[in-house]
Amino acid sequence: MARILVVDNDGEQSMSLGLSLTAKKHVVELRCGSRAAIRAGVRLRPDVLVVDWLLGQPLDGVAVADTIRLVHPQAHAILVTAFPSRDVRAAAVAAGFLGYFTRPISLQKLHAAIDQSSSTPPPPTGLRVGLLEIDRCGAVVHANDRARDLLEFPKRSSGNPQLADVISYRSLKDVDSTPGRWQPLTCIGEDEPTVVGVVKATPFDHGEHRVVLLLAQDERANVDSTIVENLTTALDGDPQATLRERTIEDHVLLVDEDDLQRRLGRMQFEKLGCVLHTAESRERALRLLAVDPKIGVILVDHGRGLAPLGDFVGALRRERPGALLIGTSLGLHKKDFERIGVERFLLKPLVAGALRDAITTVRR
Predict the structure, then answer these.
(1) Number of domains in the chain
(2) Which terminus of the chain, N or C, has less C-beta within 10 A?
(3) What is the domain range of residue 20?
């Protein structure tokens, strides 16, 4: 029996899948939308996340899984989609998904993949965020492994400690007075209090428990990263809050030989409110540059049809000197772009927040 979180914007599909999984004696929760999925993933700590590829604003299924794994890296993920594309499959594999299914879903194969999860180690993760759940009396009712490492729980007495037993009074006061902000975190050590990182708490708006997030001192720069921002935005009390919006005045050109990736890219750029051109070949890309002088940002995929890449990038630079060039790929081709002078790189699938940060950070 597994704890399973099903995320799908199609209520009928979600309910049908939930009933099938419940019949197999799994504990199943259903959610609609990326924000609700992240909140549920943090609280429910699912063994398996079954998530649709396209969830609408602000995140897709891959980004939702990555965000939940910040605080619950043990979670396996299975991607379902109505788009039978080799690129979508490659994106799922690159993100460490346990399975990839196109609709109509083979329930027999899906059940087999979920059964396999109990004997399969979860994919490796990079950044990990500590998480505590605190009740209204200040007791720690849950601490993930990262929080236990940061606060040295193994060295403390058994049982659930009070938050005041592990975080200094000053840190505790700051958390209570400004729960929506990251604050310096001072841990109560055996000898003297030690600053170990930063802490951020949610209000009690979500129920009887509040969530406290922790980052180590050498990780505090990540508080402004897109993925941590996605986590905190989903957990904060304002249901209307979105990722920070920044305007992009330049017109954008997206060059990718895969039609699905171009369409998915257009959906993400629409969230940013910018003018986007797409091209499937180098010839069309150069024609678009010739007719639109406002194109100032060019995203170039590491595709076979665009080879040799160095020659193509050189042609783009000659046609539009000063344009911001960003490499994209489903694989780890960042070094290939760096060798030809393209320093900014994004892994596909493209996500609005990462696109916004890549473009505006460079242009400041």
Answers:
(1) 3
(2) C
(3) 3-117
Q: How far apart are CA 71 and CA 147, in angstroms?
A: 9
Distance between CA atoms of residues 345 and 330, nearest Å: 11
φ and ψ at residue 69, rounded to 5 degrees: -70, -15
Q: What is the pTM of this model?
A: 0.66
Query: Each residue of 92-148: pLDDT tens digit?
Result: 777 789 989 988 889 999 999 999 888 888 887 778 999 998 888 888 889 999 998
Please state, in angstroms and rounded to a whole number, the distance separating the CA atoms of residues 285 and 130: 45
